[in-house]
Design goal:
single chain; mainly alpha
């Protein structure tokens, strides 16, 4: 299924409240394999859908994987920025894959906090809310000139 059709199918399921089916669609793409940063978008969407389906532990597990991808991208940032810029100019931005944006990282921690809160794990929720606030602070610093 093409990426646009798959996204449209996810959006249709998600917007009609069929959260488990929407998550399943995204998880089919990701598969059960090892950590793979190329499926970040699918993990984010499936995690959000599972959260709305009230499958908090499964949602949190996916958001944990998203954080592993964040860490991977942050570690690779200095190595790959120059190469990515060259590929972007020579080929196409789409060839770089989805890396997410600062607001995605803030939302990962916010959703994890809300999941923990719903599960009655307030101490873990507080940690995730603090992480979300720290990510917001770092985003503000990064974009200070634009702001």
């Amino acid at each position: 299924m093409s990426a646009k059709k798959k996204l449209s199918a996810f959006n249709t399921l998600y917007s009609s409240g069929q959260y488990l089916d929407a998550a399943s669609l995204e998880l089919q793409e990701k598969g059960d394999g090892e950590f793979n940063q190329s499926y970040l978008l699918q993990m984010l969407q499936a995690g959000a859908a599972l959260r709305y389906a009230r499958k908090y532990p499964q949602s949190t597990e996916l958001f944990d994987e998203c954080e592993a991808v964040i860490k991977y991208f942050n570690e690779q940032l200095f190595i790959s920025d120059a190469g990515s810029a060259i590929v972007s100019v020579l080929v196409n931005d789409a060839s770089l894959g989805f890396r997410g944006a600062e607001y995605d990282w803030v939302m990962v921690n916010t959703y994890k906090a809300l999941n923990f809160w719903k599960m009655g794990k307030n101490d873990l929720a507080r940690i995730e809310f603090n992480r979300a606030l720290d990510r917001q602070r770092r985003a503000k610093e990064r974009f200070a000139q634009e702001i």
